[in-house]
Design a protein that fits this description.
Blueprint: H1 6-18, E1 21-26, H2 31-42, E2 46-52, H3 54-63, E3 72-75, H4 79-91, E4 97-100, H5 105-113, E5 126-132, E6 140-143, H6 153-169, E7 176-180, H7 191-204, E8 212-217, H8 219-223, H9 225-230, E9 243-245, H10 249-263, E10 266-272, E11 278-279, H11 287-312
Parallel strand pairs: 1-2, 1-4, 2-3, 4-11, 6-9, 7-8, 7-9
Antiparallel strand pairs: 5-6, 5-10, 10-11
């Protein structure tokens, strides 16, 4: 039985209210990626621009009995060209987001991070999962679980700030960031605890803004008030965190997938820090998770567009 995710339903409704954005879908050459774009189009979340080998996309649509006749389709010879063309559309201002199709994530991100033709900004790229965990009162943002393998302290500053900014886009009433480690005390032999302490001090000095930070915190005393009380942790974050920053990609990936596959959590994934939001979906994602990922991107894209209008006013 599928686990209901009412918080995702509210997220999708919010994105539908602000209106669809044009999204370049890079290489949707299998049923799951093509259907994800089509499903999001049908409910008014996005207007997909399909980019890839025309014959393969049409064959995939025919085999899956998917009607894509109303969608724009740009013919490219292969996956690398699909990624490059998607990035070109972003740079030309023709789309407001980018979505991964059936190509490898490395192929898409390679085009995104290209120093000459890509979509980099002054902010480092990072991935966020927006997770709805059954029984948990609010969504959890987990970062970084897909982009930065072994982030440095400097990388973590941007990873944290990207997640905070996302939390504000999603209208978190208060953003409470836990910098995770295996323990809640600073230990010189454990680099994650040193980074956590430094990040918290940077927040104190205004180098990271928009949230309450605490760390190092172990997973239990980051999200469970009783566990925090047992360790005598007096903090507005301990036991109440809604943003979890993991030490590295492996820890983040295992945490997110454990919640998904063992606790029935829903996971919407997005890459931030580029010129536009980037939607990363997996073949194992449910339809609801794919739609929620699109919804998050729509909300981020609208916030970016609003900021550009203000700057240009």
């Amino acid at each position: 039985m599928t686990t209901p995710h009412p918080q995702f339903d509210r997220l999708i409704d919010a994105a539908r209210r602000v209106g669809p954005v044009r999204v370049a879908v890079a290489h949707p050459c299998d049923r799951s990626s093509l259907e994800a774009a089509l499903d999001a189009f049908k409910i008014g979340l996005i207007v997909p621009v399909l980019i890839g080998p025309r014959s393969r996309i049409l064959r995939t649509a025919d085999e899956g009995e998917l009607d894509i006749g109303m969608l724009e389709l740009i013919d490219t010879p292969h996956s690398h060209a699909s990624a490059a063309r998607g990035v070109e559309l972003v740079r030309a201002g023709q789309v407001e987001a980018l979505m991964k199709g059936s190509l490898h994530t490395d192929e898409l991100m390679g085009a995104v991070i290209n120093g000459v033709t890509g979509l980099r900004t002054a902010r480092r790229l990072s991935h966020c999962f927006v997770m709805e965990v059954p029984g948990h009162p609010e969504p959890l943002i987990i970062t970084d679980a897909a982009v930065n393998i072994i982030p440095t302290l400097a990388d973590k500053v941007d990873i944290v700030q990207n997640a905070i900014d996302l939390a504000h886009v999603l209208d978190f009433e208060e953003v409470r960031v836990a910098i995770l480690a295996a323990v809640e005390t600073v230990n010189p032999k454990m680099p994650a605890t040193i980074d956590a302490a430094a990040l918290c001090k940077m927040a104190d000095r205004g180098q990271i803004t928009g949230a309450l930070l605490d760390g190092p915190l172990a997973m239990d005393n980051a999200i469970d008030p009783e566990a925090a009380a047992m360790k005598n942790l007096v903090s507005p974050v301990a036991g109440r965190a809604n943003v979890l920053v993991t030490p590295d990609l492996e820890a983040g990936n295992m945490l997110a997938k454990s919640l998904s596959f063992m606790a029935g959590a829903g996971a919407a994934g997005i890459v931030l820090g580029a010129r536009v939001p980037i939607i990363l979906t997996s073949r194992s994602d449910s339809v609801e998770a794919r739609l929620a990922s699109c919804a998050v991107a729509v909300l981020v894209a609208h916030r970016k567009l609003a900021g550009e209008r203000l700057l240009g006013a």
